[in-house]
Queue: 3 jobs
Job 1
Amino acid sequence: MAKRALITGITGQDGSYLAELLLDLGYDVYGLVRRTSTQNFERIAHIQHRLNLISGDLSDQTSLQEALIQANPDEVYNLAAQSFVQTSWAQPVFTGDVTALGVTRLLDAIRHINPTIRFYQATSSEIFGNVREVPQRETTPFYPRSPYGVAKVYGHWITVNYRESYGIHASSGILFNHESPRRGFEFVTRKVTRGVAMIKLGLAHELHLGNLDAQRDWGFAGDYVKAMWRMLQEDTPGDYVIATGKTWSVQKLVETAFEYVDLDWRDYVRQDPSFIRPAEVDLLVGDPTKASTILGWEPSVGFVELVRMMVDADLKLLQENAVTAAGV
């Protein structure tokens, strides 16, 4: 009998890659989707006919309980959140309600409906914020520097609490930045690669960015969802840093993307103070030793390959849109 999995945030970058992985592994895959005025199923359109989509919301306890009853999953992957750091400054209460308390609602629903369900919580490297040590590992103290980071700390610790208090097989993946052609346009990696593609095609002439000195540990989302799945196959739940162990500056990201299309970034990039965070996170780099040792997980896509993949995808998308707009 096929395993059953429920994914919250299935329409997002990570949710779409995870759904693909689980389908390939023979799972029956259910996805929790919010009822909104504008449905965006673009990332899962190619597999939507193989998915079972259920209406629900992390802010509504009843809908989560109903989703668990309907899906009857062996595994639940909680990827849903208000996931953009910059937005969390403008919407701190909403971010806390969904990204923090939403985890509690889902865990408590599991506790009451079926406590044998295995649970994955998507934690973020933003919990380290003003880092206490380099690189960051599972034992590094947390020091979040945004409402989003604070909410993710809560989600992380409530997961640990339910694991230790109720014996739920609950694991937390402390994922460092992971990108792909499916990344939202508001994130700096996609903003850069789309901006480069637009400039190369003559559709734009400048790219406005914030802090070019910030450093991140960037990997490929398709690799990182494999780590999520592996956590729930372990006999013992736990917390794992998922990262490449290498760090790159935003400026290096910009240089790599522009260089790939034979352009000099200095001719096009303008620093814009409006994109600077109220409290910046300067250096994030993870130590994935535990994930490598216990899960046997290793990233397969390097930084340069990732950037080029994203630039190629944005060039193709913009060219296809131009053809469609022209009615060809």
Job 2
Amino acid sequence: MTILLIVFYVAIVLLISGVMFFIVRLVRNPERQINKRVEEFSEVYNKQEEDDTPRILQNQDFGHLTALNTLLDKLSVLKKINRLIKQADSKLTAAKLIVFIVFMSFLGFLIGMKINVFFMIVFMAGFGSIPVVHLYIQRAKRLKAFIRAFPDSIDMMASAIRAGHAFNQAMQLVGNEAPDPVGIEFKRTYEQYNLGLNLKDVLLEMTDRVNSLDLKLFVTAILLQKETGGNLTEILDKISYTIRERFKLIGQIKTFTAQGRMSAIILGALPLVFVLFISGLNPDYLTPLFHDKLGHYFILIAVFLQIFGFIVIQKIVKIKYQ
């Protein structure tokens, strides 16, 4: 039975991969010979060091999965995945992410298969979501680091403009001197602008890579100043002051909602602690819950209600400020 399940899973993965490869060949067939000849002439350029190439021009494909990347780019439903990868500043591509999800799902499939079908499905979903959850955590950490260093970067830019530098030179200064990820984003934006792209386009592209309300405020003020005029250094000083005042307000909000957030943590951990406590006192007491089919349904309902309750409490105590 175990071997049959593994063969069935592998057959499904191979079937889906084959269909996707066939579709890609149909889409790219007229261009395949041309692309092959271009690749032959461009091999010499691929030997150059990657650090010498501006970040905006660096290749984002994933080796032999270029065909899969092409197919994924044509699916509009995966634009959110590409945006998540971009905001997390990950080296992954959509093709890499899907490969990792399939691999982790198969790992969960192997682990859960040794227990029963219910845990097999749960482990497949849980392990398969690990790469996506990792990207969300990475994006949150990056956004937090960006927001923390952004006011000082604005002050640096204002000082550079006040000293007589142009706006693009001030961006270059921030890109070279500011800590990451602020320095990386401004350096990337400066490279795009230096290559001849429109200032409005490169600034809006930066707001797409970093989903921060503070950055959107900064970009809006810069674009308005370019159209209507005004004292740019004064505008930047006011933006920096506004962001720091928002930090104070966010701190007060976290203080006022600390009790509610602690309640969510305690209520969420209480069932797990209760199960561990009862299992320690009487290991056989909860055995029917894990071995009986009806017990599996009760576990599924309990997990769903726990997640639902945690989400409701988070919606109540969390103030959206981004």
Job 3
Amino acid sequence: MKLSTEKTENCQVIFNIEVEPPEMEKYLDEAYTHLVEEYKVPGFRKGKTPRPILENYLGQGALVEHALEHLVPELCNMAIEEQKITAIAYPDVEITELEPVKFKATVSVQPIIELGDYHSITIEPDKVEVTEKDIANTMEQLREQKAKWEPVTRSVAIDDMVKIDVKSVVGDETVIDEKERFYMVKKESPLPIPGFAEQLVGIEPGETKEFNLSFPAEHEDKNLAGKNYAIKVTVHEIKEKHLPDVNDDFAKSIGDDIDSLDTLRKRLETNLHSMAESNVRQTLEDKIIEEITKVSKICFPPIMVEQEIGKFLTDMAKQFGGGETGLNTFLKSSGKTLEEIKNELKPSAESKITRSLILREVSQDAKLTITDEEINTYLEEIINSDPAITEDMSNAIKSPSGRETARQILLGKKTFQHLVDIVTHVSTPVTEEKAQIEEAAAPAENETK
């Protein structure tokens, strides 16, 4: 074969391969040997049909097509070995000519990462703060969760809950026809159509109202933009919300282990502080990756992004029944095409891959490791944290694959802590053993001077 190569900037190598005549003839002979045993041509015994007659019987190009099925992967493998590259996926092949056979194979290779001087990066973490307003807002959310809805005999107002019959028609098509559905009358609600909630205000129980509404012409969903809906609504029942008073009784209703309002406030403050710490940490980790990316050279092939997106789509499909049917159901529920979903997922997939590559390289650069003891402790914590974990589940968690997953998780955490210490200028504590070694070495160093 004749081979020329091109390198791209995204960790791909392109092979331009031309199959020489003797080589092509060898593969055509192999194709004939296989096909002559598979097809019986009238007038000839199976396996005895001459090649020209078999070619004429199967149609022009049949032997070539069969030969290419074996020729292309074999020559790709030969080219990969000859060029001494490590492919991470089967090449993307394009046949460019048939006489002589020429094809282009795009090979994805191992990602490349050259870390910049990440030790010089400085980042000031955000402060962890929990204000009285934060506590008050959370308390209000709990009140909302404990709210009671009570029937009233007035007309509909904003923030009511109503039981309604609703029918909506576009032209000759009925798009909504529901009986006795509950609806929250929220100001400026976009559902089911912008302006719907406001139209309900003032309707009395038992009253029917008819009105028209349209989606804005510039609405993001082109299937809805500008359409006019004729709507008929009958209100059956109106309920208003009553929030509980904030007192000890309210606090006790939140949890069996909460005996007073003061206990509840302290619990909320502790939980909010923990959440704030987690958010600050996540923000810091994101900034670290962002800064390292700026000073480093990172390259990975597009196939890695496609694989990451594929994992997400597979998971989504499983949630909707699995397989192609599940994927189609997911796409229908999202109101988007497969291409639109992939385009939306691409930035997050690229970010996830970049993060993973940086952490892997930093852990190797810092020679970080995870011991068996660390893995054992981590897995025991998981198993002991949930009484519902069965013996079979416990064995699965402690299996070789479970231990490897734990190792990866712990290594990621340790690597991030290493980076946090660097960017926030936390000194690595000197162990007692290291101090003794340094102290013992000091006199010897002085004597040599």
